[in-house]
Design goal:
By secondary structure, the protein is α+β, with helices and mostly antiparallel strands. It has a single domain, classed as START domain (Alpha-D-Glucose-1,6-Bisphosphate, Chain A, domain 4, 2-Layer Sandwich), CATH 3.30.530. The chain has six helices and seven strands. The protein has a seven-stranded antiparallel β-sheet. β6 and β7 form a beta hairpin. This is Polyketide cyclase.
Length: 175
């Protein structure tokens, strides 16, 4: 009995220690340059329905259920999806727009597990007819998810999807 209590105490101390040193938040972003003006690129960022044309997740499940509410391209517009195991279920809501420069969204996953992240897309004018998009998201790792992040990388899990989405957007604009 005494040995079992010691083992339980050690395991509890280990979990607490891991929770203390585990990452409390994450920030993943990717950028790409375009040979297009900011006006052309912005039209593909601002609208939730346009985002579906280059979204890497839309391509992972082209048959996913989708619903749009609110006025697309305005604060409060929501895109809901429910798809296969690769895309899960969730919604994104436009929360802030700096016209022609930045759009912010609340990204809420419902399945396979509940989580919330802040998503953003920034558009920057480069020289002449060129522009740059940075797409990213940030959030907090809550217990026990933060312990899992000691062994997993949000950047590795999502970064490739961001790269693919930005490349899809570039390909669409170059057609």
């Amino acid at each position: 009995m005494y040995t079992a209590l010691i083992i339980i105490g050690i395991l509890l101390a280990l979990v607490i220690l891991m929770a203390l040193i585990a990452p409390k938040n994450y920030n993943v972003s990717r950028s790409i340059d375009f040979d297009h003006s900011t006006d052309i690129v912005w039209e593909n960022l601002k609208y939730l329905k346009k985002q579906q044309e280059w979204s890497p997740w839309a391509k992972k499940d082209p048959n996913m259920e989708q619903k749009f509410t609110g006025i697309d391209g305005e604060i409060g517009a929501v895109s809901y999806w429910n798809g296969n195991k690769e895309v899960g279920e969730g919604e994104q809501e436009i929360t802030k727009i700096v016209e022609g420069k930045r759009i912010e969204q609340d990204l809420r996953f419902l399945k396979p597990y509940k989580s919330q992240s802040d998503c953003y897309m920034e558009l920057e004018e480069l020289d002449g007819n060129r522009s740059k998009v940075t797409w990213g998201f940030t959030g907090n790792n809550k217990f026990p998810m933060n312990i899992m992040m000691l062994f997993m990388s949000m950047d590795k899990m999502v970064g490739k999807d961001f790269e693919q989405g930005l490349q899809n957007l570039k390909n669409n604009l170059n057609k």
